[in-house]
Every structure is written in C-alpha cells, then in structure tokens.
Amino acid sequence: MYGLSKKALFVVAFLLVATICEGARIKDIAFIEGVRKNYLVGYGLVVGLNGTGDKTGSVQTTTSVANMLKRLGITLDPKRLRLKNTAAVMVTAELPPFVSPGTRIDVLVSSIGDAKSLQGGTLVATPLKGPDGKVYAVAQGPISIGGFLAGGKSAKVAKNHQTAGRIPNGAIVERRVPLNLAQAGQLSLILKEPDFTTAKRIEDSINKSFGMPVAQALSSGTVRLSLPEGFISKPVEFIASIERLSVETDTPSKVVINEKTGTIVMGENVSISTVAISHGDITVEISTQYLISQPTPFSEGGQTVVQPQEEVTVEEEKARLVLLPESVTLGDVVRMLNLVGVTPRDLIAILQAIKAAGALKAELEII
Question: Which fold has domain 24-35+181-247?
C-alpha cells in the first residue's frame, strides 16, 4: 500500500498552546550584565585504572607522565614507559559568579585518548584555567562514572558511559573573578529573550516602582539602570528590589513544527488572513494474484506456467473546501482547521501551505 492513508498511518501528536506569560518576575526574564558563569578547562592524568587506560605507545600520556615525574624529582625516558593504568583526560568546570577562594565546585573528566574506562581512577591535581590563561581552580579526586565495565576478551558487560565521569566538589577555587557590580553608579539588565515591547515594559515597571527615571531601555535586549542616591553604596539591595518586580512579557507570533514527532506549538497571537482550504487523502492499493497453469495428465513435454496478475485500486477521499475567515486569536484558527477533520500531520501540511500563500501572520519554524 502506498500513499498517506489514515487507516494505515497511526500518528500520535499533541497540539500545545503557548500563552503569554503574565506577571513574570524580572529575575526570570533578565540578568545583570557580568553576573554569569565562567568556563574552566585543564589537562590532566587519571591514575589507578585496572588496565583500562591508554594503550602502550600513547605519546601524550607517556610524555605527560614523564613530565609529572620530572617535577617530582624523577627523570625517565618517555619511550621506556609502559602504561596501562593511566589515561590522559580533559577536565572542565563551571565557575559560578561571586565565588570566593576555598569554595568547592564540581568537575567533569573526559578521556581524550584510547582508554577503555575511567572506572576506579583518581585524577591527579590539575590546574583549571579560564579564557584569560589564569588558574582559577585546582581539581583532584576519585572519579565517579555511575556504572561499570566487566568481562573478558570474548564477552563484556558495560553500564553507562565509561570514558567520562564527574568528581563532585572535586575542585577548589583559588582565584576570584573580578567583578564590579555598579560602575559609576550604573547597571545593565540583559534580557534572555530580546524584545522591544518587553524591554519598554521593564523600564516602565522599574520607574513606576521607584517614582523616578531609574531605568532606560537602550535596545530590545538591554535596559540601563542608574542607582538612586540611597542605593549608591547598596547595589545588592537595589538589585533585589528590582528582581521582585513583575512584568508582562511579550513574544512574537510564531508557529513551531516538529515533523518527526508531529508536534505543533503555536503562540497565542497567531492569526491568519481569509483563506480557503481543500484537503483530502489518496490511497493506492496494489494487489498481486498468481494464476498457475499445469499440463494435462500423461502429456509429453508439459510445463507448469505461473502468470502474475496485478490489480490496482485507487481510493480518494472526498475533499472538502472550507473557508477560514480572517481570525484574531489562536482559538479561531484551531477551531476552523478542525472543521476539515485533519490529523496533526495533515495540520502541518496545511500550515505550511497557508504560510506559502502568505495568509499566516506568524513566523513558521520547522525543527
């Protein structure tokens, strides 16, 4: 059977309706410029593996071990090292804002060689550097991979990913990230989803709360804040008072379609112009029967002949023409489309056709 048949095609999908978030806190839709996490990275060695480390001859591993031993006062030729219990790894971490030296953070350890597993290994002290090349933390400790690797040459059993693991609280912060909250008595709010309307509403809400022009929307993603006289020396209190304010956010009209799962998400402001829709399915069924011809009994030189006979049946659903008048809400659009009796997958095709016709007053995004 070929074609799209409703009888042969089983589709499960959900129509999700996204509504405007009313009364969202400013702290949920924006953040103070500069107050963010910073990525750290380092190169290190994991030791104590049970023969699952990098293979013998791994240049980066043998060279790293030789250099480490040299710093400890032992000089060896890297070519003479035979290592099976050591693995070269990359160590990554996220440094939260305003952390002080001595604070512990989690680290992620990932093999960069041909090690089979990091199970049971211990990370040797590894400096973690920021983008500026400075060391901000030092990581060390036993690795947890949350699984295991067992078996022999012919059979193996593995659970979870064996070449990456975490060390909870495995790094100690050594350096603080310099950050001046209020330079010259000013701050900047950065919107997570830039929007001119939302930025203007944030400005109005803050100015109304303080009774003076404290905020100014500079763009769709930035609102500049000027600290009032009473908050010059108390920027934290000023930020806390702003984060509690509620603002009605605004989003552009958008329809998001996932063709793989048949999921459709529409914003509340989606609307269409007047348009007529005709939609129907065609089902093509091809069946084959075999006619067998055999020779008569006691005949000489007879031969059995198989003759295939094909039958093609075309079934077309009666198409219905539905006029969708210009609508102003999502409810009108969905209600009118349901009159056609479409499935979610049919609705995807219809929305694409409406957009191509220029009648869909929204952005159409296919993922």
Answer: Gyrase A; domain 2 (3.30.1360)
C-beta neighbour count of 199 within 10 angstroms: 23
Q: Where are the alpha helices (DSSP H) in the chain?
A: 26-29, 59-71, 196-210, 235-243, 330-338, 344-356
Helix (H, G, I), strand (E, B) or coil at 351: helix
Task: Please answer whether residues 267 and 227 qualify as being in contact, where contact means their C-beta atoms are separated by less than 8 angstroms.
Answer: no
Tokens of 345: 């997958």
Q: For the chain, give the mean pLDDT.
A: 79
pLDDT band at 136 (very low <50, low <70, confident <90, very high): very high
Residue 102 burial class via C-beta count within 10 angstroms: exposed 0-12, middle 13-18, buried 19 and up: exposed
User: Is the pTM above the cut of 0.70?
Assistant: no
Token pair in block for residue 28? 């949920």
DSSP 184: T
Q: How far apart are CA 59 and CA 88, in angstroms?
A: 10
Q: Which residues contact 57 (CB under 8 A, 6 or more apart)?
A: none
What is the C-alpha separation between 29 and 33, in angstroms, rounded? 13
- Cβ atoms 115, 102 nearer than 8 A: no
Reported residue count of the chain is: 367
How many whole angstroms separate alpha carbon 164 and alpha carbon 142? 12
Under 8 Å CB-to-CB from 151, ≥6 apart: which residues?
A: 157
CATH 3.30.1360 in the chain, residue ranges: 24-35+181-247
Contact 8, 1 (CB under 8 A): yes
